[in-house]
Amino acid sequence: xxxxxxxxxxxxxxxxxxxxxxxKGGKALDLFGEDHRKAILAGFIGTAALSVLMVLKMLAGIAxxxxxxxxxxxxxxxxxxxxxxxxxxxxxxIIGSVIWGTVFALxxxxxxxxxxxxxxxxxxxxxxxxxxxxMPMSGNGIFGFGIGPMIPVMTFVFHVVFGLVMGWxxxxxxxxx
Length: 177
Prior knowledge:
The protein is mainly alpha-helical and 177 residues long. It has one domain (35-173). It is built from five helices and two strands. The chain has helices at residues 34-59, 68-78, 85-107, 115-137, 151-173; strands at 18-24, 27-31. It is globular and about 40 Å long. The N and C termini lie far apart (61 Å).
């Protein structure tokens, strides 16, 4: 019986990682590789900064009806999880870290400028989606105008801080400062 002498392609050097087809300068993004993990950590740090602003806003009594954690608790309840503050905060950090950190990792090679600029661009995408998606679905109207006219401005500033901190953190983690 004849044997087939075919060469197999070499496996990717990082076990468990996924390579996707975003190519820039001959490099594919290694999803869940070192750069992606650093982007997720930068997203976590940016989310922590945003969270501090959210807590300060609540403690100051500014726009108490704007409470994304409470809204996330409602979503958790709708999908069968307990309506609990830790679950709302966990969802908030997963969204900021994993989802927006991943978006940052995916878009970073395609965007020009510094990581600060790239972080702000990603954060403004997040803000826009929050304004036209999350806010209306939460019953707060498009751009949160159902709560008040300052909501889009305040959330815009909070997201810019998130993006700046995420971009700076990524630069620091990758020693690109």
